[in-house]
Amino acid sequence: MSISLPVLEMLNSLNQRRSKGRYTESIAKDVGKDSRTIRRWVHDVNQLASAHLPNLPFSIPGLKLTTHDGRSWVELVPMSIGVSIFQYAAAFTAVSALKSIDQSLLGASADDVLDKLEPQRDVHELVQKAFHYRPFGPKQYHDSTHLDSIVQALLYSHPIKVLYKALESEEEKEHDLEPYTLVLYRDAFYLIGRLVESGRKTLLALDRFNNVEIIKDQTFKVPKDFNADDYFEGQFGIWRTRKHPKPIRLAFNKEAVTSAKERQWPGFRNWRKGRGDTEVLSLHVPVSPELISWILSWGPSVEVLGPESLRKEVTEHIEAMLDKYRHF
What is residue 192's predicted lDDT score, i.e. its pLDDT? Predict the structure, then answer.
C-alpha cells in the first residue's frame, strides 16, 4: 500500500466529524478521486492497520465502510482519545516509523506525507510543546541495546533468550521467552511474555535483564485472546499475587476524599458515607505490598476499616516506622 497525502486528508476529514462519518462520494469530491478509489483506500488503511505490522506500539486509525440511506458511508473507528492532535501525531509517527522499518510499505509518497501532513508546524515539535511528561524516580537502564532488542522482537514476533535476575534471587537464570507487550509503569519498563519452558505468562522488569538475544530464525503468535488489561485484572498495581481478592474498606477524611475520588482505583466497588466527615471507599482486591504502600502514602488521611488482617498489617508497618524515630 502507498499512503498518500489525500489518504491522510480523508482520515483528518473523518476525524473532524468524529462518529458521524461521511458519504464516499463527498470524500471523493474533496480529494479529487472517485468513490471506488475511496473504498479501496478504506480497505488499504484497514489492511495496514491490522495485517502488515500488528504488533506496532501505536495504531493507524481504522475505518468502517457501511451504507447509509442506500449510499456508501465511511466512519472512523472510535479511538480511546478522540482529540485531533493525537490522531494527527499517531498518523505522522506511523508513517515515519513504517518508512524506517520497510520502505516498500509506503513507496515514494512517504516523503511527501511527512513534508505536507502539517505544512505550517512540525507535528513532533507541536506535540512536545502541547504535552509534558514529568517522571518521578525513573529507573536507570545502563544497556539500551536490551530495550532495542526487545522492541525489535516485539515488532517482528521473534522469541528471545534472556538472562534475568529476579529481585528475590541472588543468581541469574536463563529464560526462553515469547514477548507479548511492553508495559510502562511508574517510570519503569516491564515485559509481559510467555516462558517457553513452563508455558506460563510472566512479568519481568527490564532493568534486571543482563542479556537479551533475539532468536531471528523463529517466530511465534501472540494468542488472539491475550489482553494486557486482562492480565492485570483484579490486581492493585502490576505484580500478581496468589492471594484471593478481599473486600477492602478505607475511610478517607474530608481533606483527602476529593483527591481520592478523582481517580479510578483497581477493584473499585463504591463510595459510601462514613462516620463524621469521612467517606468510605470499598475495593475488592488481594492484599499485596503495593496496596499497603498505597494506603501508607495517604498518611493520617485514611484509616483501614477492614479486613482486620489488613488493618493489623498496616499497623505493624506504622509501628516499625515509628521505632526508627523514637530515640530522637
Answer: 95
